[in-house]
Amino acid sequence: MRFxxxxxxxxxxxxxxxxxxxxxxxxxxxxxxxxxxxxxxQEALILAEPGDTVELGAGTxxxxxxxxxxxNNVTVRGAGAGEGGSIxxxxxxxxxxxxxxxxxxxxxxxxxxxxxxxxxxxxxxGADRIVYYRLRVEWTAGPxxxxxxxxxYPVESTDVLIDSVFVRGASDAGIYVGQxxxxxxxxxxxxxxxxxxxxxxxFDADVHDNIATRNTGGILVFDLPSLPQQGGHNxxxxxxxxxxxxxxxxxxxxxxxxxxxxxxGVLVMANRNVEIFDNVFDLNGTANVMIVGYRYxxxxxxxxxxxxxxxxxxxxHGKAGYAxxxxxxxxxxxxxxxxxxxxxxxxxxxxxxxxxxxxxxxxLPDIKTPRSEAKPQPANLKGTPPARLPEIKLxxxxxxxxx
Amino acid sequence: xxRLAAALAAALLCASGASAVSEPLPDxxxxxxxxxxxxxxxxxxxxxxxxxxxxALLPYDLNTPLFSDYAEKHRAIWMPPGESAPIMRDGNxxxxxxxxxxxxxxxxxxxxxxxxxxxxxxxxxxxxxALPYIWDADGKDASLAIAGRRVPVTFKSPDGAxxxxxxxxxxxxxxxxxxxxxGEIVPIGPKAGNMDFAASRGRSDFSRFFTxxxxxxxxxxxxxxxxxxxxxxxxxxxxxVNCSHCHNxxxxxxxxxxxxxWTDPVNVNYGIGKRPTAxxxxxGGMDFAIAPGxxxxxxxxxxxxxxxxGIAMPEVGRSTVHSEGAALLRQWIAEMPKDAx
Lengths: 403, 341
Known about the structure:
The complex is a heterodimer. By secondary structure, chain A is mainly beta. Chain A has 4 helices and 31 strands. Chain A has a domain of 253 residues. In chain A, helix 2 links the parallel strand 1 and strand 2. The radius of gyration of chain A is 21 Å and the shape is elongated. Chain A starts with a helix and ends with a helix. By secondary structure, chain B is of the alpha+beta class. Chain B folds into 2 domains: 210 residues, no CATH class; 109 residues, no CATH class. Chain B contains 6 helices and 13 strands. A 7-stranded antiparallel sheet of chain B has the order 7-6-5-4-2-1-12, with helices on one face. Chain B has a two-stranded parallel sheet with strand order 3-13. In chain B, strand 10 and strand 11 form a beta hairpin. About 4% of the residues of chain B have low confidence.
């Protein structure tokens, strides 16, 4: 187990001082105490030119409207994400679906906090090569159904790096990457969200060295129908700590994460080639790892609802399955002597589980069979896994920003 | 709009009466230049010291307009002399470089009916540029508000209800959020099927602005005029105009998979039986965007009737509920057969 976050933290102060910028680049500094700070900050984000840095002063910014950035290759840098840093407080937000929206490429966001937005925290759409680094997105009252949906929310982007962020309280997913390609989520903490980290309808992702704790579900890898990009595949979830995901589900009903049982560690739904390895699991009351098909009605002939070629290996399993929270789980647990094994599979698609722990199949190979007709039985999923997935490589320009 | 028509008629009379005198024209050099003038007057689009567009501009209306907090919008187009916009087969005009689309927002019962803001959409050689201007207190000129601003206004809606809101003048990026196709700014209002030139068709110079294709383009219904279309057609026109600039495969809401263009088929990607994607609290605890026959369990309605920024749709440009528009959509959904999905 190694933690990049700790290593990075030790060297951060030195590196921040030598951030490389083109010679013509300028720094636009905005202070939290400026009258009309909201307008001035938005103005800076609009007037910035490629290569520029918009510098957020320390202090608490009381913002009434969402911010947006649509200029390529801009850095937004604050004085820190913790106490005494640059705190963007959206408690009084009157408009916009998120706190900060980025729609341009090569943007670097670092060193600030976004608090209590009405909708999403930070969203980036069609923003290639975006780097989220040392940020905090938080709903400070903790889990509440009235909190915004996503904390950190890149979507429809190629090359995404989320590194050393802290997200707490999202009523959907703390860190959510949707319909994107080539993704790394690392060294981050997702705590007390419905889903800690979610990779959805995305291709080629590494999720590693994160801590997903006290969420409803720790890390989700989902694929949903009727969306522009689907067929999620090639996702590696490794060397994470996924523990105590015990927060009762507080997502608004109807959203897919509202169906996540409390006490889920990693949940894979309808993807192919997902590898879950070398993680540390503990205290996930439903299951440490759950592998399922998409069992809702849909009318999308191109959609593939089964999990395929899912691999579970080398993980460390602490206590699991002692408080399973899906319909009918009580009876199954009672039949099995009070608790479920750490790995749960609904019986659809295929998976290889090499971990030396029990696997329970719900015996529902046909995706159209309702879960109420489960025929639970222990399963042996040991077998030969497919070839290992390659490591995700991001463009050097992105890694340089966090070195 | 009657008042507007009268004003225009007066302006036309003046123009024809003074035809020997050369009519003032906008400042094409500023329009074509690369600057973002601090004052609206720099463009010379209005009569000096007023918010009244020059008679040289072509006013127009829309059959079904975008709802903007019940604001009355005065629209006009400028194209450089000798240039015109051919209407393409898809109904989109192809505007020449040098075009300016001018839209002023105000309320008849607020501040003497004077506009609060004027938005310009300028076709420059490099592409379209969107600039928001807020009118100065004396109403003689307007100032660039590139970062937008909230302006407190009070007005009555058609049902007689009084509204006091912090009206949001959009910032430059928010202009683009709606006016965006494949990441580039484009006009969204002036489409041949939705433009109404009743106020200007009789002008002698009308034909200099637009050239129409041989095939007639069917007009889009007026959302609030039952004579112009069925409930379903008017509801679809309302969604096309109010939602589809984002909700299309190349717009700001492309990732939602909810596509509401006038030409889109009414199926799951139109919201029928469509589960929430990234709706968050916007789902309101409901399973479907549109549940046929059941507007109370259709979260599309829930979002249109909400003012909470974490729920409300559209995400920008609305601080009041358009209850008449929502009522039309409710009726449309209520009349759908329940087994439509």
